[in-house]
Automatic annotation (TrEMBL):
PANTHER family: PROPROTEIN CONVERTASE SUBTILISIN/KEXIN. This is Subtilisin-like protease fibronectin type-III domain-containing protein. It comes from the Eukaryota. Residues 267-286 are annotated as: Disordered. The keyword Protease applies. GO terms for molecular function: serine-type endopeptidase activity.
Length: 382
């Protein structure tokens, strides 16, 4: 047993989450369809961190404690330093007590030292939710200083952390302030941009719940098509299918060189002849947006293609919400399908004058069973 550092009793841990599943109608009672849910690849793309950032500087740190048994396994261009180390707490002094921490991430040290709970100062927005593995409360700097003042002015300070209370928010869902906003800085014609490599992309954003613009002031630039509806995604009716070749054409229309294009595609792709004359707005996305000039007449067309994945024999009719001083036309207004996986193309023409910085409308294709919605946004920069 010389190599055993410590032994801990086995504990049963329970999943800690919010009401997100119930909110989306995806609770435990939902009938699962394994044949649909299987064979799906979910990718998470993260830009990572920059180890050389001042935030990770180890200047002023002493050497790691001798009892530190961990190791820093640096990857390519990653330099390890003395900052891998948590501040240690004396478990004899904090066990069974509520610990006050000046950072929201201090809970880990308090937990490992056996504290009963922790009061944590946070500088983050109250819109950000935290889940802790033991009783804890994240408070603002003002609240933190008041608690600290009470603690320092009382011989025997007392505290109690009550169980959280779940309430129903009638304004939900709302996009948080720290969430990114459109239009996309690199491709303004795209509301919410996504690049996928080596796979086909079927966009299900057209099945999202419509969100309330009165509680989301940035409208579609904040929530895109809306809040995803996972149950409708099982049977969408129509989908906007976008292939890798479509993304390559879109990138080429932005003037990318073959070298840069290949670094993105991961293969020997080259820009098709004449692709520089195409427009990114014609990428087969379920959303449509365009930048125009203020108080200047405009006429814009969007070319789209949908694939039938609903009923073999189906007829979809177009319904467009019109805007003041703006005309929106769909050609054709009816799409008739005779088989599954059949494709139909249509053109949307938006014309008029933008007297407001942001104009929002939508197109809905419906066969009486399925409703496939696409936002239409026209805007100008002030």
């Amino acid at each position: 047993m010389d190599r055993v550092v410590s032994v801990f009793p086995s504990r049963t841990l329970h999943l800690q989450t919010t009401r997100s599943w119930d909110f989306m109608g995806f609770n435990e009672s939902v009938t699962r369809k394994r044949n649909i849910e299987s064979n799906i690849i979910v990718g998470v793309i993260d830009t990572g961190i920059w180890p050389e950032s001042d935030s990770f500087s180890d200047e002023g740190f002493g050497t790691p404690p001798k009892k530190w048994k961990g190791a820093c396994e640096g990857g390519k261009n990653f330099t390890c330093n003395k900052a891998c180390v948590f501040e240690c707490l004396d478990s004899r002094k904090v066990k069974g007590k509520i610990i006050i921490c000046d950072t929201v991430f201090g809970y880990q040290g308090a937990l490992e030292a056996g504290a009963a709970g922790s009061i944590l100062q946070t500088f983050l927005s109250k819109e950000e939710a935290f889940i802790f593995p033991f009783p804890a409360s994240a408070v603002s700097s003002k609240e933190y200083n008041a608690i600290l003042s009470y603690k320092n002015s009382t011989k025997n300070p007392q505290a109690e952390i009550l169980k959280s209370e779940a309430i129903k928010n009638s304004t939900a869902p709302v996009v948080t302030k720290f969430s990114s906003r459109g239009p996309n800085s690199l491709v303004p014609e795209i509301l919410k941009f996504m690049l996928l490599n080596r796979i086909n992309f079927i966009d299900l954003f057209s099945l999202a719940w419509t969100m309330d613009p009165s509680t989301n002031s940035d409208g579609e630039f904040a929530y895109g098509s809306g809040h995803i509806n996972p149950l409708k995604a099982i049977n969408p009716g129509l989908v906007y299918e976008t292939l890798k070749t479509d993304y390559i054409k879109m990138l080429c229309s932005r003037g990318l060189s073959d070298k840069v294009l290949r670094s993105i595609s991961g293969d020997n792709s080259t820009c098709p002849k004449g692709s520089e004359k195409e427009s990114p707005k014609d990428l087969n996305y379920p959303s449509m947006s365009a930048e125009v000039k203020q108080d200047t007449p405009f006429k814009i067309t969007f070319n789209r293609t949908v694939t039938n994945v609903g009923f073999p024999n189906s007829v979809y009719k177009a319904n467009v919400s019109q805007l003041q001083n703006v005309s929106i036309k769909v050609e054709p207004e009816v799409l008739s399908f005779k088989s599954l996986n059949e494709k139909k193309s249509f053109v949307i023409t938006v014309s008029g004058s933008a007297g407001k910085p942001f104009l929002s409308s939508s197109l809905v294709w419906s066969d009486g069973k399925h409703s496939v919605r696409s936002p239409i946004v026209v805007y100008y920069s002030s």
